[in-house]
Each structure stands twice: as structure tokens, then as C-alpha cells.
Amino acid sequence: MSRPSEPDHAYLQSIDDRTRRLRADAAPTPSTFTGAPEDLCRDVERGVDRVADRLRHVVQHLHAHPETAFREHHSAMFLHQELSRHGHEAWLGVHGVETSVRAEIGAADSGPTIAILAEYDALPEIGHACGHNVIAAAGLGAFLALASVAGRLPGRVVFLGTPAEEGHSGKEVMARNGAFDDVDAAIMVHPYGYDLADQVWLGRRLLTMTFTGVEAHASAQPFMGRNALDAANLAYQGIGLLRQQLPPSDRVHTNITEGGESPNVIPGRAVLKLYARSQQPATLRDLSARLEDVARGAALMTGTGVELQWDEHPPSLPIRTNAALTGRWVAAQQRRGRSPLPLGVVSDTLAASTDFGNVSYRVPGIHPLIRIAEPATALHTRGFAEAARSEAAEQGALDGAVGLALTALDYLSDPSLRAAVHEEFEAQGGAIDVPAYFA
User: Which of 43, 124, 210, 245 is least surrounded by CB atoms within 10 angstroms?
Assistant: First the structure.
């Protein structure tokens, strides 16, 4: 009994078996749009080839210098220097975040604008175990490749270095400070264990429940106390019971961070922190209301008070994927010998969250995944951190750069594609007021 039991891998194996069966028959939906002229596409692809060695260096350098959310000073400066060495004016600390980066090609009045996003924050202790070093290299490479044909671009391209995705919402902070006010569409790519054209991403909110009771001697006068830890414990158990009535894609994970110091004193303060995740904005809002009811019920049962603090960091919405843009990503990846799988092949039980979701409810966007690791290698593990500095990671950055550059080029060059992108976005509900959504 001195060690925990080993988790059974049977469920993960069943997901892998299901994925293998589905991927054998899966084929991406072909794009019906012509996109950019072929000669321009070839020149952009050659533009990635010319900077390939620098992009490999970016993958390795950022991996060797991991920095956590809002502390990415070296990483941001490094990307700023890479842009400068290629002759581009770049700005640090824009849109309300010290460690953000922005660069542009094309004039604001030269046509439509598309933003290419790059993340570069890492995780505590395990570094780039989500592969954001690969994201940064791919985004940088796409921007540099498009810059090589800047004089032939029918529009504008913005490179946005967006810090603090892990556990925070750096993109939402930047958005509230105007980062996407002059942008018509936004794209990025994330490394993974599969090539996926689309995958489910959950919205996420943070809730802190602070219970306040009355301290008392736990032996001499327990009846004079109001136990805040009891309230936190009831809330914890209530959340556990609530899970049975939640949709399968919902997630609630919780810990009690404060609960008293001495067993001899009835605690007068206890704090429970949780993440709430759901697949749709509306279901996330409903889940939020139910969690508030659990907290108030626990306080009522114990005679304690409760304060609820939502979203210490701004909430993340689920991703709203644009199918028309996704089709062009798939076409670009097929040029590189990859075959991104459509939505539904990989189980949505493996879903996580990202602040790109907030961007995708402001402007049309895509967030595909590119394979750099074996399918069984999960994000946020030491195994994925190792994969993020491998040759496969370097190749993923190069293929991702081509994919982003060609998708952006197609969007700028093909009016029929652009119209379809925005018609789809409006049909999905159009832009929403993200800061006010949970108010």
C-alpha cells in the first residue's frame, strides 16, 4: 500500500484502436476553391526552404530556453531579433502584454488582412511539453515566406507573438487591447501526435470558492464554530456528484488549496479552486451556473459564507473552426505529403483548451494540429517535451510554416474563398462580445 496503483491503459488503447479503424477510411473533404496562383504558391514554398535552417534553430533555441506565461522575455526578444535580421520592423510589448511581438507586411489599405499567430510560452518544470517552440517557428517561417513575395500580395499579413496560453489567456488580453481590431482572419498550428485538420477544443473558466466560517476550539466548544473546511468538502463532493449529470465532454477539476492549519481548531477559512470546461459557449455558461449553486448549497448546509471569484484570468471559449479555411490548410499539407484527418477520427474525449478559441469568435480562424510525436505521446508530458526538440518537430515546423503561408496566401488571393469564409462565420453566429459573454 506504499505506492499508488498503476492506471490501466485499456481505455487509451481502445481510443487508439478506434482511431486506427476510422483513419483507414477517413479522407479530408477536398477544397472546392482554387486559391492562389500556382507560381506564387511555389515561390512561397521556396521562401520557407530558404529559411529552413533558421527555423530549425528557432525550434531548438526556444526549447532550450523555456519561459512560463507572461515571463517570456528572452523568447519574445529572440523572435524580435529573428524578424529584424530578415529586415522587418517589429514591435515588442504591444496590445497590453510586455512579452508580445508584432510585425506586418503590406499596407492597411492594400486589401484584406490575415494574422498568423505564434505561441512560445512553456510549462513549469517540464518546459516545452506542449510544443509551443514549434508553433513559434512555424508562424515565423510562414510570415518570412510571405514577406519574400510581399510585392505580389493582394493584402496584408500580421505576425502576432501571443504569450501566456498555458493556464492563462494572453490572446484575450491582447484582443481587449486591439490586437484583432484590424484583422479579418487568424490562423495558427499546434503540434500533436496526429495530423488533424480539426479537433474539439473545450472552453475553460476558472472559479475560486472562498468559504468563511467561525473558528472555535475543536474539542472544548465545537458547537460554537462554523466549519469552512466542511463547506469546501461538501462543495468538492457536490461537484463529484454533479459530474453524472453533465454532458460527456464537460470537465471539472478541483482542489482545496486552503483548509485550516491545526486539527485542534475548526477552520474559519477554506478555499477551493477549479477549472470548468465545456464544448460550447452556452453549455459552459450553464455549467458555470450549476457550480455556483453547488457552492451556495454547501455554504447553506454549514452556516458559512461563500465568495465566488470567476476568471482570475480571462476565460477561454471553445474553438469555432472555419471549414472553408480548413480546406485550404489540408490542400497545403497534401503538398508536403501529409494527410490531415477530419474531425471525429480522433476521440473528442482527448480534448483540452486554448485561448485561440476567443480569437475564433471574433474573426474566422483555424487551429489545425501537425504530427511531431507518436500518437500515444500526450501533450504536457516529458515525452512530448522530448518530441518537441526532435527532427520530427523541426520538420513539423517547416511543414506547418508552408501550410500557414499557403492558407494565408489563398485567403488573400481568392475572393470566392474569402467570401465563403465570412459567410460561414456569419452563419455560425458571427462575432460575439467575448468579454461580456459570461457577465
Answer: 245
